[in-house]
């Protein structure tokens, strides 16, 4: 079946220009936007948080799923457009009941001010300069976020989804995959953005694991162990975890002969559980 053709607009047509200091590259390809919108299942929640909606190219396709979208946008030009012109252009679907835009920084926003204790999904064409921080905040708020879908710089998306044994496997991989199933969906070229970035992008999907709340160790301790390990990723655990002053009999185990990229997510969880029990 042939793809539906959409009229392409530049951001200048909408009175919005990309800001380099905000890491903005506005998505202009409607078909890519539809594929990103389709990365969520829309099951088990009735609200979606979009980060950095820009000119709403992705936003309207999420709203068409019959779900309320709350968009967090830091760029004042985009906010003006989204609050005034965007509802007029898409009057059939954009109403106060289906869409709200808040001028704020996602990383600084207390999400309970928007959702209380209710579940919500996250979606977006994420600014490259804060994309890893967005994932870490998602993991920290995992009890309310069952799904996450969106676009990153390709290398970052691959890092999030990387398996142990890979050179790209690291802190982000372990802490995300301890709580979410991560899937790399597809690659996107620079030409679908205005302005085009110098790199390719990758779209991924995170689905929260059914037992995410039954992990045998705390997130804080897991983060401590994983960061210590990967901050000296060329060293074995015996050396990188030396500052934790672990018992000699524990340090003699085979896992301490390994470098961090050789250790699976579950092995990190199991090891952290033992370390946490010591204290």
TrEMBL record:
SMART domains attached to this UniProt entry: rADc (SM00650)
Residues in Ribosomal RNA adenine methylase transferase N-terminal domain copies: 32-210
Catalytic activity: adenosine(1518)/adenosine(1519) in 16S rRNA + 4 S-adenosyl-L-methionine = N(6)-dimethyladenosine(1518)/N(6)-dimethyladenosine(1519) in 16S rRNA + 4 S-adenosyl-L-homocysteine + 4 H(+)
Keywords of the record: Cytoplasm, Methyltransferase, RNA-binding, rRNA processing, S-adenosyl-L-methionine, Transferase
Highest taxon in the source lineage: Bacteria
Residues noted as binding S-adenosyl-L-methionine in the record, renumbered to the chain: 25, 27, 52, 73, 105, 125
One Gene Ontology cellular component annotation held by this UniProt entry: cytosol
Primary localization: cytoplasm
GO molecular function: 16S rRNA (adenine(1518)-N(6)/adenine(1519)-N(6))-dimethyltransferase activity; RNA binding
Keyword Methyltransferase: yes
Family statement: Belongs to the class I-like SAM-binding methyltransferase superfamily. rRNA adenine N(6)-methyltransferase family. RsmA subfamily.
Function: Specifically dimethylates two adjacent adenosines (A1518 and A1519) in the loop of a conserved hairpin near the 3'-end of 16S rRNA in the 30S particle. May play a critical role in biogenesis of 30S subunits.
PANTHER family xref list: DIMETHYLADENOSINE TRANSFERASE (PTHR11727), DIMETHYLADENOSINE TRANSFERASE-RELATED (PTHR11727:SF7)
The protein's name: Ribosomal RNA small subunit methyltransferase A
Organism: Nonlabens agnitus
Lineage per the UniProt record: Bacteria, Pseudomonadati, Bacteroidota, Flavobacteriia, Flavobacteriales
């Amino acid at each position: 079946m042939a793809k539906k053709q959409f009229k392409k607009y530049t951001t200048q047509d909408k009175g919005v220009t990309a800001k380099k200091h905000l890491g903005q590259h506005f998505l202009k390809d409607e078909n890519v936007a539809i594929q990103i919108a389709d990365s969520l299942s829309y099951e088990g929640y009735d609200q979606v948080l979009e980060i950095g909606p820009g000119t709403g190219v992705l936003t309207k396709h999420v709203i068409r799923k019959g779900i309320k979208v709350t968009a967090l946008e830091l760029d004042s030009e985009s906010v003006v457009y989204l609050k005034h012109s965007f509802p007029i252009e898409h009057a059939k679907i954009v109403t106060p009941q289906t869409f709200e835009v808040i001028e704020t920084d996602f990383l600084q926003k207390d999400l309970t001010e928007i959702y209380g204790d209710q579940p919500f999904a996250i979606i977006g064409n994420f600014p490259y300069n804060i994309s890893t921080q967005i994932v870490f905040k998602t993991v920290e708020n995992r009890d309310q976020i069952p799904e996450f879908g969106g676009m990153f710089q390709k290398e970052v998306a691959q890092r999030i989804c990387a398996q142990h044994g890979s050179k790209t496997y690291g802190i982000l991989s372990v802490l995300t995959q301890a709580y979410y199933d991560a899937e790399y969906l597809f690659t996107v070229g620079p030409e679908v953005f205005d302005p085009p970035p110098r790199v390719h992008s990758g779209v991924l999907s995170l689905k929260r694991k059914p037992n995410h709340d039954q992990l045998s160790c705390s997130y804080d301790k897991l983060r401590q162990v994983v960061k210590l390990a990967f901050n000296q990723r060329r060293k074995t655990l015996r050396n990188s975890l030396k500052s934790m002053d672990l018992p000699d009999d524990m340090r003699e185990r085979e896992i301490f002969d390994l470098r961090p990229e050789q250790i699976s997510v579950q092995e990190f969880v199991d090891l952290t559980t033992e370390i946490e029990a010591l204290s």
